[in-house]
Amino acid sequence: MSTENPLLTMTGLPPFQHIKPEHVEPALKSLIQSNREQLEKLLKDNEHYSWDNLIQPLEDMDDRLGRMWSPVSHMNSVVNSDELRDAYNNCLPLLSEYSTEMGQNVELYEAYKSIKDSPEFDTLDTAQKKIIDNALRDFHLSGIDLPVEKKKRYREIKQQLSKLTSKYEENILDATQAWSKHITDEKLLSGLPDSALAMAKQAAEAKELNGWLFTLNFPSYYAVLSYADDRALREEMYQAYSSRASEQGPNAGEFDNSEIMEDILSLRHELAQLLGFKNYAERSLATKMADTPEQVLTFLHDLAKRSKPMAKQELAELTGFARQEHDVSDLSAWDIAYYGEKLRQHTFDFSEEDLKPYFPETKVIPGMFEVVKRLYGISINEVDGIEKWHDDVHFYEIRDDKNELRGQFYLDLYARDKKRGGAWMDDCIGRKRNVDGSLQIPVAYLTCNLTQPIGDDPALFTHNEVTTLFHEFGHGLHHMLTRVEHIGVSGINGVAWDAVELPSQFMENWCWEREALESIAAHYQSGESIPDELFNKMYAAKNFQAGMQMVRQIEFSLFDFRMYHEYQPELKGTGSIQKILDEVRSEVAVVIPPPYNRFQHGFSHIFAGGYAAGYYSYKWAEVLSADAFSLFEEKGIFDSETGSAFLESVLEQGGTKEPMELFKAFRGREPQIDALLRHSGIA
Ligand SMILES: [Zn+2]
Questions:
Q1: d(CA 611, CA 563)
Q2: Which of 133, 263, 526, 531 stands 20 to 30 A from 605 (CA)?
Q3: How far, in Å, from the CA of 626 to the mean position of ligand 1?
Q4: Which of 451, 563, 470 is nearest to 215 (CA)?
Q5: pLDDT at residue 683, as a whole number
């Protein structure tokens, strides 16, 4: 065995093909050990602390650790294996321990305070000041002020939470892969479009099966729910999907997240109380743009009140349509998407399927790059010969109008086995100025679970998939186009979580503009752009069921926030999670799912991800993104002056200033909700 550990020797991009599970633990242990020694030395050697003799070296240490861990955590999400999973999980307690130890280091805290109180502080730039202020805030949030016993408890809680959230995520992945539907009788497949059939055939062939294989990967599941005429098939798929990782459904109890969720909630509540907050919702807001729980709840209730009448009307229309046209009088959860699609076709003579031939990957990707070239003057080109974790991955670089290299990214588009569902952007390398004066260029991972290519044709995406891609690309640009040179607040670092969806949701708007669609859409065979007639139908159908979608997002947001805000320890294990969800549904939802639905068991955003008591962020930031876009509506969607203004006042600024300040710098005033309501057809 070689003694070289690629995770320790890497200098630039991660050597994905050389990183093996056995490298992970030794690399992490070695880096943590050397960081500890270095910190001790820094604290001991210096009498007076300054940015250069303390914070700069600390940022470098953090960065090194982050850069080592990033590919490991990423591979655990996109090319999962038993060995990597074990290695990853063995590291979680070490990382948690290290992070708490840093956050509770009183000597280090005093050193930060001394810099804050020294004359040097006034001479630092905005980014440096913000980093120090954030650090002082985070020391408090890590329990620096607590007595020894409570500090110890804080540490234990963090340890347990990191294990539980990882297990929660694993259960979803395993439950998603554990179930599939093998079909050999073609009669059962009536209604499914050719693209879905080809995808299912390809999935069957990959497992050396005859016929068709449908899985719980989203593109496969969604096609059946939207198009399969066979009601029993839709019901079976719906039941399997909506009960994943729970005590219900076909794999009941096998990957059950029930207890894990109870434990996560109770530990987060205890953690918040240790720190002097009433509950975890308050703790969550300590680092967000929203000030109080009341502010969040009022915002959500108000939005619900405005949207629910429209949602009700839409459901009534759907119910009436199913009864009149299809003689179905009892719409169930597995009928909503199916008859919704039929109603869309009936009303607008338009199906999501009609657009797919116009969104081949070979047009969408260069077209998306063309859009941002016109907006921000940046050029994006593919770079070959870079090590990747999978053959389907592409690698690109971004250069600005002065040909300066601004960022690089990996694009991993398709759904596949051993890859976590959903779409996300993650940080591989962050932008910073090194002590030797060189610049570290930011690198991002853009990950989606879109429909893969079938046979020799390019992948054909739904419009919704294209929108998802633009969303993640928006996050990516925020990470990569930053001008900030201190990693703690460069890119998305240090950006309040309820403002972080601004650049991403903002990008989605271009997917609806005729002028932009000229760049991103063309028929994969004829090369024709979307015909006017089809575009008009698509646009007319834009707000189809927008009220129902709105109340669904509000349902998720309220459920998440209230669950943390109203948590009562004595109710643990008594079904209080389901009870809150039921209450929220009776207030805002128009579609009530069947009793076995365990949506919450797969809601990793709020249990395992960073959105705990923060899912409202999507709607909150949508007010910002819709209002920001409305300036482009006024000035022209490719107005380069407005584009530069957005680039300079929002995208390049990272977390150096409060989001409200950045927004006002761009928009010239505080955000208004009107644009969001107008875009959703609710105003
Ligand atoms: Zn997002």
A1: 13
A2: 133
A3: 14
A4: 451
A5: 76
